[in-house]
């Protein structure tokens, strides 16, 4: 992989022959696990400006209509998380000369607070071509990682590494985008602002960072004269550009807003016309007739591939990460391909055509607990290499882990044509369908109906597409060994359980993210270059000594992380969430306010006061603390650093996904904690304070 330094550039064709479609990944790690950033892309014309506001792609506008740009969102890695963008360079309009790849942070956060900032670029087969590591991001809220640009009919990449003080809006306006954020300032009020005013009138407000140090100015963008820079101190947003040829007033086009959209949940389903519950609604994809695993695999493949072909935004969403171009998609099932003396029949084929060129992937599907067979996948990889196909995609209920492939497939390096091997879990398929259907929207009502039918099929108990559902053969022996204290460090069964735990957490993130419409990712605190295998070995050693499995989830838009711990010795699951103490006010005020915010939380919620320099402070259940919030205060007057909210429940015993199984108990624990505690905090923050509550606070 080619290592770049700031200011260097290289032609993509010098690194690979397969650069018609490339994947750019922006990555970072956070010491606290809470730090994050959002990517954005700008397409620039010959003047170094966007042709129109439609050339600005970010979280509120993630996909180009022509398929040239698609923001895939965040994915967990061994070194934290990555935000990935797919570029179909063959679809980029000819008048676009530069493509800016940037990221931004919010709420006073700066890129200097993140570690291991990096950008990597991979070709259409998934091979990493180049990497640019950034060590000097500094105190900026927006950052240009690099840019793709045309030179002599070929694409090059330049490592930029330049920051902006005034965030995504400042970066976008510098490149000619009209941002509609002037009207968004009143959309969101600071959390419980009225209560703060009532309770802390005796305390002078602390100065903000901008008041202390003054407004900063963005560094000039590459190729941009310094005198053209816009002062960061100007709060007004330029009015929309108007054509000089306009002879009469025209309706102003909607301008992009960098304020994040609020998720709108689907409308309540209309009342059914059925006389009673025994009347079953007719379905496009029936599941009742499925009797064998072979039937389930055939039906699941046909259902998925047909919906991918008929709902372009869904098909593109699943294949873009695999290097497929944006174009006309057709899908096929049960195709016979020659392979030695015995023809092979892959479960499906995906073919995409663009500008006379074809991209083809073979599909191998498994349902229920059936594992992928290495010899089958190897045969399909060999067939794809001989026939010039681009990829082999495997689908199963298992979840792929970095550094731990599901099947061992050997790729002949002597072949000029490379075949990429990709994996999708059925949980990921359901997650992507749910995100489009419930939160982001699709093109028309027919597409929405098709996605709804697909989701109903995948979630039916007889489909065999329920996601990861077995902790493996090592689960029961490890639990017994922990109870008996007969396990030793280095036992391979411990590592098997740790890998199964990591797969389960990935699936929990997909399920919760699909419900909320936000990205939910496991927190990674590993340093750059950390070996995923070494990290899992360390977790296995801790499991042997402590008898606990631990994970942390970061939910987009929620401060802090949601932690879950499975104590195999006590058979208890603990879900918890830490709330930092306010910077202003009095401890008793903080306690009262927290109790009010938890008005809808369950009575058995445990509240613990976190004290500086001590292992723990006062604690009690919400039921006991509601009448006496003062019991949360340390008796010795120690400084409070925050509060920890926890729920406990018994964990399932069996290794499967039954009602009494461990997998179901973990999923239920996370869902219950978020809906009853984290969401309760969010609702109280958005609820206006009544005069009675303000009087009580004072």
Poorly predicted runs of 5 or more residues:
182-251, 260-266, 686-698
Largest sheet descriptor = 7 strands, antiparallel
Work out the radius of gyration.
Answer: 27 Å
Estimated share of beta-strand residues:
15-25%
| Residue-averaged pLDDT | 82
Distance linking N and C termini: 62 Å
Number of H- or I-type helical stretches: 15
Strand order of the largest sheet: 18-19-20-21-24-22-23
Could you give the count of β-strands? Answer: 24
Shape category: globular
Category by helix and strand content: alpha+beta
Helix content: 25-40%
Q: Could you characterize what this model shows?
A:
With 698 residues, the chain is of the alpha+beta class. It has helices at residues 167-174, 193-199, 209-213, 293-310, 312-319, 374-387, 426-440, 445-459, 475-484, 492-516, 532-546, 587-597, 622-625, 662-686, 691-697, and strands at 2-4, 9-11, 21-29, 38-44, 56-57, 69-77, 80-88, 98-104, 115-122, 128-134, 142-151, 154-164, 328-333, 348-354, 357-365, 391-396, 420-425, 520-522, 548-555, 562-567, 572-580, 606-611, 619-621, 640-650. The strands form four sheets. A seven-stranded antiparallel beta sheet has the order 18-19-20-21-24-22-23. A six-stranded mixed beta sheet has the order 1-10-9-3-7-6, with no helix packed on it. Strands 2-12-11-8-4-5 form a six-stranded antiparallel beta sheet. A hairpin with a 7-residue loop joins strand 22 (606-611) and strand 23 (619-621). The protein is globular and about 75 Å long. Residues 177-199 have a biased composition (Acidic residues). Residues 3-175 form the TerD domain. Residues 252-262 have a biased composition (Basic residues).
